[in-house]
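Structure tokens please, single chain.
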Amino acid sequence: MKASGSRRGAREDRNETRAAVLGAGSWGTALALHLARSGVPATLWTRNQRTAAALREAGENAAYLEGERFPPDLEVTAELSEATRGARLVLFVVPAQFCRPVFRAAAPHLPPAADLLIASKGIEEGTLLRLSEVLTQEAGGAAGRRATVLSGPSFAAEVARGDPTAVVVASEDMRSAARVQEALSRANLRVYRSSDLVGVELAGALKNVVAIATGIAEGLGFGTNTRAALITRGMVEIARLGTRLGGRPATFAGLAGAGDLVLTCTGALSRNRSVGLEVGRGRKLQDILAGMRMIAEGVATTRAVVALGRRHDIEMPIAARVHAVLFEGTAPKDAVTELLSRPLKEEG
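Here you go.
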């Protein structure tokens, strides 16, 4: 692979959409591959110069998506100014708890007319803000108003290898949402659009907590009855908090809600389910996380979700028990017992 700036001049002379993908983990790399393979020249940004050089030399991101070769229209850089120069679409794909510094660093380099897409999922733990709200704080109101978010059932490895996938992009500015929808809807990826920015963001973040719960149950040896109950009641919790915060009920039954929830709670590639699985088998959380290359967003999100529930007086028994297991020393079996012994009530 050539150095990242070697084709820059020629590319900028072409009247076409260019994309900057900020974050070279599995999901960022998968989205960059998808765009470049679909005819959208893309630059993949990583914060480390040595990593950027290694990716260019290897022509693939073997640490996350081994065997998925970079096409000619995919470049790699460690310079934010180079990554974003001339971009009409900028994707933020870094772990949720690291989004703020990346938003801040990228803000001076964002082209004024570029559409901004947040493909990370989570809630900032310290502030309890959605990531689009964090972007607004760091990059200004104009950037926040045109921000879009991407969510839905989409494992990075499956998108990278071309499996048919459906996702949703949401924004308060439907013109931005339509442009991003058009840019991403290529080949195997079908993108729907939504004006429910709040609901799509919250659904994408909260499902990870339920996935940890289903993993814990599986690690304890419970079967599919238990998993189905947790998924169904978890969806109730997500919708309960999400609608209180301004999301629309229908969103939580759609791709960002039920679709992503089912995938994350059942799929073998789910990091959050895998964390729960190991916790249920008796391993300590810190040991599990220390052995993971990728970040399980649901761990930090669990703290944020429980805090949001308390702030808004929303009952979230599954999230509360996950929090108790992860951070309060409650044994997984005891947490299940507590869930089952709650007062009987009508479904709803």
